[in-house]
Every structure is written in C-alpha cells, then in structure tokens.
Design brief:
The protein has 718 residues and is of the alpha+beta class. 15% of the residues lie in helices and 28% in strands. The protein has 13 helices and 39 strands.
Length: 718
C-alpha cells in the first residue's frame, strides 16, 4: 500500500469519527454569490430571488416567478436607488443579480458591480478598448451584459476579446482574443456558459467578415471548438467542427460574387440559447455580407446558414439541424433576435418549441426536436416582402417585387433593415402563454447601388445598395410621411393561436425590451422616457415612471431580504438613432442621460431635476456651392463611411453630433483636421485617411452643407 493511500484512508476515518456527513466528506457551506451559479441554477432559475443570467434561465423567456410586486400593487412602485453611467451611448444590458450583488455592462464593454439593495458601487472594470474600434461597430459601441458562472463573470468586448473576471473583485482572471483584430469584427452580445464552457459569437457583417461561434474552457480560456456559419470563401477546409456542415451548404452559394471578398457574413451577434431538456445549443445567425443577394451570391442559392436558427451539440459543436427563416436573405433580415424556449400544447399534444420574432415581421414557432416549422404569423401590419409561409416546405411565399436586384426597380419594404423587432429582448409569460414583443413599423426603400464604391472589392460599410437615397430621399413629402409612419407597439402574441391577443401602440419606434413576472405583469421602457408596467393578460397600463431619458434595454427583477426590486438600464443609442436619425421622431429630442434605475414598492428616491436652459438656435449652414456631381460623390462617400454613425441625412438622432449643425462646415481646414488628421481620435472620431483622400473629405463636407440647406428649406429644420 502506497503512502498516499494510507494518508487518504486515515483522513476518511478521521472525518467519519468527527461528525462528517454520511458519505464521509466534511461539512461544507453551500456556495454563495456568483460561486453558486451553476447548471442547476441556470436550468431552473431557482426561486426567482436571483436573476442569474441575461434571459433569467436557460429557457431565456425573461419570466420571473416573483409575485411581491404584482398587478394589484405595482402602482406603488417607486425609485429605490439609481446610478449615473459614464458614457452617453447606447445602454443595452440587462442587469444580472446574484446574492444581493448587481452586475451590468455599459458602452465600450465596461462592467459595473453594485450592492443590489443600496446602490453602493462595489467595483468597476474598464477593458480599455481603443476608441478607433468604434468605427467598425455597425450599431453603436454597445454591450448587452455579462454571464455568471462559478465565481466568475464573462464579458465580450467591442474589440473581440472574451474576458473572465473575478466576481468579487472585478479583476481579470484570463482574457482571450476571439477574433482577428485586423478585420472589422466586434462583440456586443452576451456570452453564454454551458457545461463549463463559455460560448461567444461576433458581429461585423456589414463591414465584411465571416461569422462563427467559439466555445472556450470557462476556467482557463482554452479553445474547445469553433463552428463557422457560412462556407469558407476560399473553398478550403477550416479544420473545425463545422467542416462537414460547410461541405453540405457550400452548394447553396454561388461560385463567384462579393461573398468571395467579404466573407459572406452570417455573424451570430446576439442570440445563443442552450436547451437543457434536449442538450442542444441554438444559434441565431445574422445577415449576409453584403445584404444584396444579387451582388453577394449573384442572386443564386439560399446561402445557408444566413438568417437561420442552427442547432448544435454543445459538448462538441457538431451540427444537428437548421431552419432558415429568410432564404437568399437580401434585406438584412437577421435571425439573431432573442429566442425563447417553452413546451406548448399544440393540436392537443405537448410540443417542445422555440419561439422567435426576428427582423422580418413573422413570429416563428419551431419544433426544437427536429427544426420543423409549426407556425409563422405576421406580428406587425403591412409586411410586404412575403405574404406568409408554405407550411409544407417551411419557406416564405415571397413578393417577387421584393427582389429589387432582379426587377431593377426600388422596393418600398415593410419592415426594413431597422426591423419589425430588433435586438430588444422579448419575454414569454409561463402564466398567460403570451409572448411580449417590442415591435415597430419602420419602412424603407431598397435600391440597387449606383456608386463605384460598390465595385468588386468594396471597402467600408458595404450593404450592396444605395443606402443614402433609400433611407433619406430628397423628397420632402416622402421624408415627412416616413417619419410619421415610423411607430412602435407592444404586441402580446399567442404562439398557439398564431395571432396577437392585444397591442399597445407607441408614437415612435425603438422602445425597450420586455420582462414578464408571475405577478401578472409585463414591464417595458419607452423611447420617450417612461418605464411602464402592464397587466399581462389584458394589456391595461398599471404603472408609469418618468425616467427622463429613452429606454432600450430589458429589465430584470430580484429579491434582497424580503424586498423585491426591479432594475432597468436607461439611455439612448443603437442602430436607429445613429443610422436613420429622422425615423426616431420625437424621441430625438429626449435627453440622453444614461442611468441604472432600481425600483421597489414604496421607493421614495427622487431623480435630480433636469436643468432647463434655452439654447440659442444653431447658425444656418454655409451656402451650398457644390455642383450636383460633387454632391453625388460626397453622398456616396458619406453613405459608405459616415452614415452608420451620423445618420442617413447627416442630421443624427440625438446621440452623436448633428453634422448639419456642425460649425466645422464653414472651415475646410478644421474639417480636414478631423476627418483626415484625426484631431478627435481620442473621442472615437478616428482619421479616415486610409480610405479617403483630403479631396474626398471635402466632397463629404460639400454634401453635408448641401443636405443641411435642403433640409432647412424643405423640412423647415432649424
């Protein structure tokens, strides 16, 4: 017998004689804090005292069993505490709360920890993302939250890192670069942790990348597997677990086309959901690169796995099944929106399903055992790219006019790339059986490109269409009608009956995500600055609180001691106000004051009064002296390199500077110092010298001057 064996036996005997457990192991305290977050807790969500992951538990239905705050008393909800956030950019994270500690992320991938009952800040972590990375973020420098697991927090950064933090201190335990930082990849989504692995995707399709998802060891950061979502443009094998699947889907892509240069897209930038019942992992796959199917794949093939839900074996990353919602995607109709899991009684039989309300305006109910479509109904009015779905094939019944690259004619689409439902979280109530969708109606035209910048080797923001004229045409009546027609709604959708049960209309789009509770409540923030609660069954509004800024994020709820709290991150930003500012309507004038707000029954904390000052009207723009050719050239450059941040009209959406009112328009030298010399690079406005000449930069200035004068004359814009 070896010495080590003797010592082990002696230790076991000593433990047994000194009052150990029946198994001979010593008594040990149960894990606390983030240390207790494991598969058991994330599978069930526990008793609701914690909100331990972004979607509450692995089902990701954002439904809490807590009832202290309910339909009968929610009107007594008041502010318990608040914390001002440092960066006035898009606030999209859902707070994660475990054992009385609240963790939330903000722009530039920063992480914050608070005492969940008092609001005392515990620590802050700044990953130090270089501000020049912001120009590669299609939809703001946002972050949607952390994942918690066995004592650590995991956050993805805008520059493609995955970082493990000690949850007690906020200090990094390990960091791994998940992307090639020489390419325009970004991470804005939440990591998911399953089977002691952290799974993360990425974004960047509009700039030309190839999508994939990677699993890393949660303890060490070592890579476990990688699954690519679209074929390798070179035709070579990747040496990854996705190789067999890519061999099968390659024939759904053309032999040539821009995907050979752009990578094809298919980024998984948000929804990654684990099915604990079936031990499957679901990926919500994004749009093509470029959007235009005619340019991307010569108008040929379904282009798998774009706009698809893909099921994998989580332990190995092997392919199981897929369902493609939008074959031959050409409108930026991603399938990256939140996915919720449930068991529904359909046709008298219990069915394990997943539910999704993606960009394209149809609500999908899919059998998650085999990927077969069960239901697909229009959850906003006026959807016109397809009339419905063929339930035998699972394919859409398309409107031929929607394929604008085939007809050569513009197609005025509902919805548009801004989406019938974007990233804002959707909730599903286990009580009412209804899904609560933060829906919107924002139309736009799709036009074939007219610029040489959309040639065989495109650079910059490339969607393969005339984005500027599509989203902001020089037609005052069209712009005014489009602004008035851009609206929002809270839609309570019955996934079994395949129809809306009730709808609350909103005057503007881009309202917040939803959360449902067993107190028969649905919570949602609005773009116009309210935090609201509705009766989950009827849609009757029961509570409203003026938060003083627009709300996009989804709420969470938790208990500390005997008190239930409701937390929401408030602040404006994201794709709509940045890229198509005019469509945000009156929300453009709502202050952008980023805050974390936490409520409880009887809360009496007051927000500081907003200082009211009458700002002097901006000076008129310089007179336009450009020729039509110069304006057209400047507009093409602006659309490729500037529009994604400063808006389709150069007027912005109240988040970044309104270029139509910029004093630098009158000074060509100052304009050059910013655009070419990088005078404001430390503020995120990097030099564009790599993609623009000084002469081209001045063409952009001439276009903005001309646009400002047109808007002042035709839209009475001051």
């Amino acid at each position: 017998m070896r010495k080590g064996q003797v010592s082990l036996i002696a230790a076991m005997m000593l433990s047994a004689c000194s009052g150990g457990t029946e198994t001979g192991a010593p008594d040990r305290a149960a894990p606390t804090g983030v240390g207790k977050v494991d598969a058991a807790l994330l599978t069930t969500g526990g008793d609701g005292r914690d909100w331990a992951m972004t979607g509450f538990d692995y089902s990701e239905d954002r439904f809490s069993p807590l009832t202290q705050v309910n339909a009968g008393n929610v009107a007594k909800l008041g502010l318990a505490w608040f914390a001002d956030m440092p960066d006035a950019r898009g606030q999209e994270a859902t707070p994660v709360v475990v054992d009385g500690k609240l963790f939330v992320t903000g722009p530039w991938s920063k992480v914050f920890a608070y005492d969940a009952a008092t609001g005392a800040k515990l620590w802050e972590f700044d990953p130090g993302v270089s501000k020049d990375k912001g120009v590669q973020a299609c939809c703001d420098v946002v972050n949607r939250g952390v994942a918690a697991w066995k004592g650590r927090l995991y956050v993805g950064t805008i520059d493609g890192r995955l970082i493990a933090l000690d949850a007690e201190t906020g200090k990094p335990d390990w960091s791994v670069q998940t992307t090639d930082n020489s390419k325009p990849y970004t991470i804005t989504g939440v990591p998911r942790v399953i089977k002691d692995m952290v799974v993360i995707g990425n974004g960047g399709a509009e700039f030309g990348v190839r999508g994939y998802v990677t699993a890393y060891d949660a303890a060490t950061g070592a890579k476990k597997w990688r699954f690519y979502t679209v074929p390798n443009p070179t035709g070579a094998k990747d040496g990854e677990v996705s190789d067999p699947a890519m061999a099968k889907v390659s024939p759904t892509w053309s032999k040539n086309g821009q995907w050979k240069q752009s990578g094809g897209g298919g980024t998984v930038w948000d929804s990654i959901v684990y099915d604990a019942d079936l031990d499957q992992l679901y990926l919500g796959v994004g749009n093509g690169s470029p959007w235009n199917h005619g340019l991307r794949s010569e108008g040929q093939g379904d282009n798998l796995f774009l706009s698809s839900i893909v099921a994998l074996k989580p332990s190995t990353g092997e392919y199981v099944w897929h369902y493609q919602e939008t074959p031959g995607e050409t409108w930026d109709f991603t399938a990256t929106q939140p996915i919720a899991l449930a068991t529904l009684t359909i046709g008298g039989q219990p069915r394990k399903v997943l539910m999704q309300a993606p960009k394209n305006g149809f609500f999908y109910v899919v059998d998650r055992t085999n990927g077969k479509l069960i239901n697909a109904g229009q959850f906003i009015p006026g959807v016109n790219w397809a009339s419905g779905y063929d339930m035998k094939t699972g394919r859409p019944i398309e409107n031929p006019a929607a394929r604008f690259y085939k007809t050569g004619k513009p197609f005025l689409a509902m919805p548009s790339a801004i989406a019938a439902h974007n990233w804002q979280p959707m909730a599903f109530s286990r009580q009412t059986g209804l899904a609560y969708i933060p829906a919107q109606s924002v139309g736009s035209a799709y036009l074939n490109p007219s610029s040489p910048l959309d040639g065989p080797k495109p650079i910059g923001f490339n969607v393969g269409q005339d984005l500027g004229n599509a989203m902001y045409p020089r037609d005052a009546a069209v712009v005014k009608a489009a602004t008035a027609g851009a609206t929002g709604a809270l839609v309570a959708w019955d996934p079994v009956a395949n129809k809306a049960r009730w709808t609350v209309p909103y005057p503007t789009p881009w309202n917040g995500g939803t959360m449902a509770t067993a107190g028969n409540l649905v919570f949602q923030g609005t773009a116009l600055g309210e935090f609201r609660a509705y009766d989950a069954g009827s849609g009757k509004q029961l509570f409203s609180y003026p938060v003083g800024t627009g709300v996009m994020a989804g709420a969470s709820t938790y208990m500390v001691g005997d008190t239930q709290y409701v937390a929401i991150l408030a602040g404006r930003g994201g794709a709509l106000p940045l890229s198509i500012g005019y469509a945000i309507g009156k929300a453009r004038d709502v202050p952008n004051k980023p805050r974390l707000l936490v409520f409880k029954l009887g809360g009496a904390t007051k927000l500081p009064a907003v200082a009211t000052t009458t700002a002097a009207p901006p000076p008129p723009p310089p007179p336009s002296t450009a020729t039509p050719q110069q304006v057209a050239q400047g507009q093409a450059l602006y659309g490729r390199f500037c529009q994604v941040c400063h808006g389709a009209s150069a007027g912005g959406g109240g988040v970044l500077p309104d270029l139509q009112h910029s004093p630098t328009l009158a000074d060509a030298d100052t304009w050059k110092s910013i655009l070419i010399d990088g005078a404001l690079k430390d503020q995120g406005m990097v030099s564009f010298a790599k993609v623009m000449t000084p002469e081209q930069a001045q063409l952009v200035r001439l276009y903005v001057i001309d646009e400002a004068n047109w808007a002042r004359k035709n839209l009475a814009r001051k």
